[in-house]
Amino acid sequence: METIYFAGGCFWGVEHFFKGVDGVADACPGYANGNTENPTYQEVYTDTTGFAETVRVRYNPGRVSLAELCKLFFAIIDPFSLNRQGHDEGTRYRTGIFYENEADRPVLEAAFAAVAKELGQAPVTELGPLCCFYPAEEYHQDYLDKNPEGYCHLPLKAFRYLRLYQDIRLYLGDEPDAVARMANTAALIHERMGFFWTGFYIVRGEELVLGPFQGPSACFRIKFGRGVCGTAWKEARTIVVPDVEAFPGHIACSALSRSEIVVPIFRNGSVAAVLDIDSTELSTFDATDAAFLNLIAGICL
After folding, report:
1. Which has fewest Cβ within 10 Å: 125, 129, 200, 226?
2. How confident is the model at residue 33 (pLDDT cuts 50, 70, 90)?
3. Phi, psi (5° rounding) for residue 282?
4. 3-class SS of residue 244
5. Is 115 helix (H, G, I), strand (E, B) or coil?
6. Helices 287-297 and 156-172, interaxial angle, to 10°?
7. What is the pLDDT of residues 106-153, one digit of tens each?
8. 263 by DSSP, 3-state: which?
9. What strands lie across the sheet with 239-241, from one edge to the other?
10. For the chain, give me the number of helices (H) and strands (E)?
11. What whole-number distance in Å separates Cα of residue 11 and Cα of residue 94?
12. Strands 84-85 and 88-89, how do they pair?
């Protein structure tokens, strides 16, 4: 077993999330990298001890890699929020990744660099060696199992997306055909998340051509730079649209679509396809959808 430490705001939700990751043997909430010994929750809460609420994650590297754990961690935090996650504010809620083994540092640095490249700026999340860690009091352990209605700063859909992402990885396995992989990916997202339209457009020359999808009939072809899909292709970035009517040049394949997210899918450094998802409600998609759908996009081809 290997060990890594994730500080991601309130440790109740972070612990519960990592307990659901395949390959994680144990997740323990506690206090890391402070300046006293054996702190209590009440002491940490004052923000005078230097500790961060942190989850110690013990994992089997044969089942889940450190790089994969980092991707999941960055999917559930705001990496640009200093000393605040959700409604929780204070230095005890700062984000960070702390390691015991110096050999882990290059993997962690690569994960930080990938986030900076994808999001356009360096995260304020700390990266450094673990100085100390003290498990939290018993009533904090497995808190959300003991209190299913208890407070959690993570959105509930993060837990749904975690299961979906892991199931897609397992289901696709080593299937080599890209169309088959996209078809079942679209089916699983559509079934689990209940979106209005879920599907793929594939780059063919200067156009996106309709690929496997779930939902009503759609546009056959979309020009480079046109509509949300063509813009995501042109700009090579995920685009979240709270109101499609407000997006310049929106292509209305269905009048029922109200909001949309489009995620580019890369192959050999270039956009090879896009994952397009529509909702009949306004403002359906946010940073959580973007983070997890980017993870899914990375494995579906």
Report:
1. 129
2. very high
3. -70, 150
4. helix
5. helix
6. 10
7. 999 999 999 999 989 999 999 999 999 999 999 999 999 999 999 999
8. strand
9. 221-223, 207-214, 197-204, 270-279, 259-267, 239-241
10. 9, 14
11. 11
12. antiparallel
pLDDT at position 79 is 97
What's the pTM?
Answer: 0.95
CA separation for the pair 133, 288 (Å, rounded): 29
Tracing tokens 């060990």 back to the chain, one arrives at 3
Q: Of how many residues is the chain composed? A: 301
pLDDT tens, 236-265? 999 999 999 999 988 888 889 999 999 999
CA distance 290 to 3: 28
For 96-113, how does the pLDDT look when each residue is reduced to its tens digit (9 = 90+)?
Answer: 999 999 999 999 999 999
Q: What does 146-195 look like in DSSP terms, one character per residue?
A: H-TTS--SS-HHHHHHHHHHHHHHHHHTT---HHHHHHHHHHHHHHHH--
SS3 (DSSP) at 61? coil
209 pairs with which residues across the strands?
Answer: 202, 221
Task: Give the tokens for residue 44.
Answer: 């940490």
Question: What span, in angstroms and rounded, lies between the C-alpha atoms of 246 and 28?
Answer: 45
The pLDDT assigned to 252 comes to 85
Catalytically active residues, by annotation: 10
Query: Which residue, among 275, 195, 183, has the nearest Cα to 233 in the 3D structure?
Result: 275
